[in-house]
């Protein structure tokens, strides 16, 4: 029986579909939505802004706010409660670091940005290959 589910959300439509799937497929489970901010990039954008902030935790919450709010809306539409967690760093690595605490992980097949689509499923593929628990990939 699945009692703890981790759902990775990145703000894409497919991630929203992953959360909806988890809420429908595991109605009795405790569901945690994890969003990851501050991934290092060649342009030093989000990661640098968070690292240089006087209050990194507040900066992370600010960057994650749109995803967190959407997750809350989806949960409310399903009359469900969810836990929310914000991570910082490389998405696949952050997901894999906490996956052991759950019975299963649910991820979208790819993210929403053009870069993510060029490397379709890069995060999902890494999570599937390395996860210590079963993974469901939602399209």
From TrEMBL:
Tell me which residues make up the UspA domain. Answer: 1-139
Show the InterPro entries listed in the entry: Rossmann-like_a/b/a_fold (IPR014729), Universal_stress_UspA (IPR006015), UspA (IPR006016)
Instruction: Please report a single Pfam family linked to this protein.
Output: Usp
Domain of life, per UniProt, equals: Archaea
As for family, the record states: Belongs to the universal stress protein A family.
Which PANTHER family does the UniProt record give? STRESS RESPONSE PROTEIN NHAX, UNIVERSAL STRESS PROTEIN
Q: What is this protein called?
A: Universal stress protein
